[in-house]
Design a protein that fits this description.
Layout lengths: L1 E2 L3 H5 L4 H8 L7 E7 L5 E4 L2 E4 L7 H8 L10 E3 L6 E6 L5 E7 L4 E2 L6 H5 L4 E5 L5 H15 L4 E5 L19 E4 L6 H11 L4 E7 L2 H12 L3 E7 L3 H5 L11 E5 L2 H7 L4 E5 L7 E7 L2 E5 L2 H9 L6 E6 L5 E6 L5 H5 L13 H14 L6 E5 L3 H10 L5 E2 L8 E5 H4 L3 H10 L3 E4 L4 H11 L2
């Protein structure tokens, strides 16, 4: 990785007693931010942890010294330093006077997205989630450079707080050939998003910090016009976005649906359930919990549907090693075996009306967990999908065309419901039948991961 070093341009705007300490600090290149609060000691926060920089307390003069040497604070209380990526945020008292500063170090780091570059080449819209300070902005800055320079696409960045391209009318070189549209007021971000698509014919639009309902609706409008979106949103994971009403529209929106008695009985759910209203604005989602470690939802639409049904989707995990190698694995879904037989989930064992029969089937299934050589009788499901799902959790499936030799049956629910012969055979010999609503790898993986655990 090559790091664009302009840290000294931030340090030289700090009071002398802080500047002197930082210039010679051994962890200088691991600095995340400097905190200056009135009446307190100045504190530096490094990757390895926080550290006081001086015994001297911050005074009004110290705060004034720094604020006069940086750009003007906008209505979101953020300012920058000319031709750099650094951000200075202020805290004000009740008289609107600045009594605290947070000086965040901004770096353009090249090579940070090598582990997910293939996702960019897919042309799908990507949503990036993660807690503050984990590297979302750094990541989308590098994405802008790769898309504009290396893939030669028309890229426009909606830079609300000048964090992506720096606090200057001339964008920072870290974004490559991408163009940048600045936002005069935070509340106007959604208007600038629409203006970008209408006036400048972009192939890709990059947005940092989608946080309001209007911005979510603007993102959906852009997606519907066939433009690739790359954006970040407030939230640690996809589940938190579903629970956030202003942002749930990014995932297609959530609505309560009341089912008829017959339909609720057929599904094995309550009459009032949650469902997705429309297609998501983003097809892919990346959760960043740690630097160089990404959790990827390869199909946001499917992940949202499974989460609303109370089932965890299969997640892809990518880790970028120090040698540049990317390690990819899949996380096995973990859920309680009793809830697996509870038809509140769409991926459950075939419902039995007789409680005793259901209990026998559950006991039979628990025994099957210890059987290495399962024989699967597939019903209305392509074999290659079952093989792919089995490979994800690390075992080789064995199939049979003779139901009397099978240890489990996996099939589509709508077809199995109509097959009286299979149901009678299952009742007689306690043969477990697992059903899914759609022939998809994640749903099949859900079943297999529980059976062979």
């Amino acid at each position: 990785m090559i790091i664009d070093k302009d840290l000294d341009k931030l340090i030289e705007n700090l009071p002398f007693f802080i500047r002197e300490t930082l210039y010679n600090h051994p962890n200088k290149n691991q600095l995340i931010e400097i905190v200056m609060d009135l009446g307190r000691r100045p504190e530096a926060r490094f990757v390895v942890g926080p550290e006081y920089l001086s015994q001297k307390l911050i005074s009004w003069q110290d705060l004034d010294y720094t604020t006069k040497r940086i750009g003007k604070f906008s209505n979101d209380n953020r300012a920058g330093i000319e031709r750099t990526l650094h951000r200075v945020s202020c805290i004000r008292n009740r008289q609107f006077i600045i009594n605290g500063l947070t000086c965040r170090v901004g770096r353009a780091i090249f090579g940070t997205i090598s582990g997910v570059r293939d996702l960019l080449e897919s042309g799908q819209s990507i949503l990036i989630l993660g807690k503050p300070g984990v590297g979302k902005t750094t990541m989308i800055r590098e994405i802008a450079r790769v898309l504009s320079d290396e893939m030669e696409k028309r890229v426009i960045i909606i830079d609300t707080s000048n964090e992506i391209a720096g606090d200057s009318d001339i964008p920072h070189s870290g974004i490559g050939r991408a163009r940048r549209m600045q936002v005069s007021k935070t509340e106007l971000q959604h208007q600038v998003m629409i203006e970008a698509i209408e006036n400048h014919m972009p192939e890709v639009i990059i947005i940092d910090e989608i946080g309001t309902e209007l911005e979510s609706l603007a993102a959906r409008t852009i997606a519907e016009r066939g433009v690739q979106l790359v954006g970040t949103a407030h939230g640690n994971c996809l589940e938190s976005l579903i629970k956030n009403p202003p942002l749930s529209d990014l995932l297609g929106g959530i609505q309560y649906v009341t089912l008829s008695d017959d339909e609720a009985k057929r599904r094995g759910t309550q009459k009032s359930i949650l469902e997705r209203k429309a297609y998501p604005a983003f097809q892919l989602a990346i959760e960043i919990n740690e630097r160089n470690l990404w959790i990827i939802h390869e199909n946001v639409e499917e992940s949202v549907d499974l989460l609303l049904q109370g089932t965890s989707p299969i997640l892809q995990i990518r880790e970028l090693k120090e040698n540049g190698e990317t390690k990819i694995k899949y996380r096995e879904t973990k859920f309680d075996s009793l809830s697996f037989f509870n038809s509140e989930h769409n991926l459950n064992i075939w419902q039995k009306t007789n409680k005793e029969k259901s209990s026998n089937i559950e006991s039979k299934n628990l025994c099957l967990n210890k059987i290495d050589n399962l024989k699967i009788y597939p019903y209305s499901i392509p074999l290659h999908l079952i093989k792919k799902a089995a490979n994800l959790i690390g075992f080789e499936p064995s199939f049979t065309k003779d139901i009397s030799e099978a240890t489990i049956v996996i099939g589509l629910q709508k077809h199995l419901r109509q097959n009286i012969k299979i149901n009678r055979f299952s009742d007689k010999y306690n043969l477990p039948i697992y059903t899914i609503n759609k022939s998809t790898v994640p749903q099949i993986t859900q079943i297999l991961s529980n059976v062979v655990r």
